[in-house]
């Protein structure tokens, strides 16, 4: 069974509408929508905004449904001038950019007392996503790279520059690395798919309301093609 996590209602509403044989289970303030999309067994859930909600949702998916893989779909702010609004970023790995214990001698993003601070995504899921690009017919560029996550909406050029220089991030959002953290610890393959809704610079407040809807549409179209190609283990 494939678990699909979005952060907001808009991100999962279209996917919920596609589910055949819908069953709904409520837990931890979240609704889990189980059924089939394109013949594939799926569970779709809105986790809510932020890393705690995302982590709690991911563990619930694993415990309740024993999902064989998890894909987090949603929107993000670009950290690269070549990645424009509407484009797609597929994560090769994720990092929690707001994990900061530098006062104790750790590098930014490093989680103390563990060797695990970078959460690699699934090569198989990444390949499936890349193979889905043409069929999705989204008419935008698709990039791969690091997704950085934190409980912050990134809007300033200075913060953008720091995220690029410190972590090599391609885009910034608020859930992916928390999902990756839980998935990797549970040995469940995962992927983060992000459609760009704003440039993560001083124009973010202006761009976000205008372009979020289009970014979500691209993300859903991409997800539909990924689901068609995914073989449940």
TrEMBL record:
Its EC number is 3.2.2.9. GO terms for molecular function: adenosylhomocysteine nucleosidase activity; methylthioadenosine nucleosidase activity. Pathway: Amino-acid biosynthesis; L-methionine biosynthesis via salvage pathway; S-methyl-5-thio-alpha-D-ribose 1-phosphate from S-methyl-5'-thioadenosine (hydrolase route): step 1/2. One of its GO terms (biological process) is L-methionine salvage from methylthioadenosine. SUPFAM superfamilies: Purine and uridine phosphorylases. It comes from the Bacteria. One of its GO terms (cellular component) is cytosol. The keyword Cell cycle does not apply. Residues 2-228 form the Nucleoside phosphorylase domain. Keywords: Amino-acid biosynthesis, Hydrolase, Methionine biosynthesis. It is an enzyme of class 3 (hydrolase). NCBIfam families: MTA_SAH-Nsdase (TIGR01704), PRK05584.1 (NF004079). This is adenosylhomocysteine nucleosidase. It comes from Coprococcus eutactus. The gene is mtnN.
């Amino acid at each position: 069974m494939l678990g699909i996590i979005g952060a907001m209602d808009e991100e999962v509403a279209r996917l919920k509408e596609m589910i055949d044989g819908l069953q709904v289970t409520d837990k931890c303030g979240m609704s889990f929508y189980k059924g089939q999309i394109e013949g594939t067994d799926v569970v779709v859930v809105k986790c809510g905004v932020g890393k705690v909600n995302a982590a709690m949702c991911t563990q619930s998916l694993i415990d309740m449904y024993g999902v064989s893989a998890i894909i987090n779909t949603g929107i993000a702010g670009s950290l690269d001038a070549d990645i424009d609004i509407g484009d797609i970023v597929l994560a090769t790995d994720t990092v929690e950019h707001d994990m900061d214990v530098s006062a104790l001698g750790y590098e930014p993003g490093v989680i103390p007392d563990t060797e695990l601070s970078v959460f690699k995504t699934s090569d198989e899921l990444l390949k499936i996503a890349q193979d889905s690009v043409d069929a999705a017919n989204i008419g935008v560029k698709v990039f791969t790279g690091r997704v950085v996550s934190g409980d912050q909406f990134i809007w300033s050029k200075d913060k953008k520059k720091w995220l690029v220089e410190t972590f090599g991030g391609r885009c910034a959002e608020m859930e992916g690395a928390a999902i990756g953290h839980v998935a990797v610890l549970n040995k469940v393959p995962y992927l983060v798919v992000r459609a760009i809704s704003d440039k993560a610079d001083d124009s973010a407040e202006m761009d976000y309301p205008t372009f979020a809807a289009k970014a979500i549409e691209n993300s859903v179209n991409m997800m539909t093609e990924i689901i068609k190609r995914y073989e449940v283990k």
